[in-house]
Write a structure and sequence with these properties.
By secondary structure, the chain is an alpha/beta fold. It has 11 helices and 8 strands. The protein has an 8-stranded mixed β-sheet with strand order 3-2-1-4-5-6-7-8, with helices on both faces.
């Protein structure tokens, strides 16, 4: 069984991926309404996969039957792998991993879906840090193939190998990554967002024009469409994390425009508004 902590966009996608790979899934959240919304979103997403021919129709009920929701963290105690998918807060993640250390078996692998925080730091609260690893999925997690598998300083080779094997069973392509700020993708891709935001701040072009130009040069999505899809709250937190980790390096400086959107609750598609309006 695979346990997943957090029923938001990433947690839902990871749950679908795990269930599609044949694993039983326990999806945990502290809010029953969030779990109900997640259940509906999962059913809709799997149905869409069937419509597009990506999921065989006969697999639809089997996938859904493998996913159950819970508000009890103890229900995750029997999991062979627990994937934490909560907001990018080191304090929150350490709190959760400390709890898991006392609930799960000593052999259970504890993975964080963090996109930029240190796995070594997270593992400090676990009795056996060798079983703590990063398992960074990309949005939408049930569709995107890449998974960064991050080894902290104390992560064992056995843990990394087991997580890579599980990722492959989910139909993913695991990439082994060192525990560095932003890992591979978020460090390399950060300028895609920050430079686009600088252009917007300077009034050179608006969001739609910048997105069109980037798409015309081969990108499937423009930066502002992608930030709205990821969630501006998530995106700006990763930028802040890299900015701090690299001691205020200018290219990682967060944008006041994006920070203002987050403060106003305009998080992107999930809130109905972001750089673009999705309410209609």
């Amino acid at each position: 069984m695979i346990g997943i902590i957090g029923s938001g966009t990433m947690g839902r996608g990871i749950a679908i991926s795990a269930a599609t790979g044949g694993y039983d899934v326990s999806l945990y959240d502290i809010d029953q309404q969030a779990l109900d919304a997640a259940q509906q979103a999962i059913e809709k997403s799997v149905a869409k996969g069937v419509e597009k021919g990506k999921i065989p129709a006969e697999e639809q009920p089997k996938i859904l039957a493998r996913i159950r929701t819970t508000m009890s963290l103890d229900d995750l105690g029997a999991g062979e792998l627990i994937v934490e998918a909560v907001p990018e807060s080191m304090d929150l993640k350490k709190k959760i991993f400390g709890q898991l250390s006392g609930i799960c078996s000593k052999d259970a692998i504890l993975a964080s879906n963090t996109s930029s925080l240190s796995i070594t730091s997270i593992s400090a609260v676990v009795d056996n840090p060798g079983r703590v690893v990063g398992m960074h999925f990309f949005n939408p997690a049930n569709i995107m193939k890449l998974v960064e598998v991050i080894a902290g300083r104390f992560t064992s080779e056995e843990t990394v190998a087991n997580v890579c094997e599980i990722a492959e069973k989910m139909g993913k392509t695991p990439a082994r990554v060192k525990d560095t700020p932003g890992f591979i993708v978020n460090r390399v891709a950060r300028s895609f967002y920050t430079e686009s935001l600088r252009i917007l701040e300077e009034g050179v072009a608006d969001e739609a024009a910048i997105d069109r130009v980037m798409q015309a040069h081969g990108f499937r999505m423009g930066p502002f469409t992608l930030m709205d899809l990821i969630g501006n709250d998530v995106n700006v937190e990763v930028t802040r994390s890299l900015y701090e980790a690299y001691h205020g390096e200018a290219r990682y400086r967060p944008s006041h425009i994006q920070e203002a959107l987050v403060d106003a609750g305009m998080l992107g598609k999930k809130s109905g508004r972001g750089f673009y309006n999705y309410e209609s």
